[in-house]
Design brief:
The protein is mainly α.
Amino acid sequence: MLWFYESFFPVVWIVFLLYWQIKAANTKTTQRLEPAASRIPRAPSF
């Protein structure tokens, strides 16, 4: 059963990331970027 937990969760993450990349492939590009001075203080909260 240990092999299940060692393999299941990495496979789920890989599938999720592949799905995300496929869905993001034909989306619009970013029009404006938030200034770095505004992004940096908020980054540690994520």
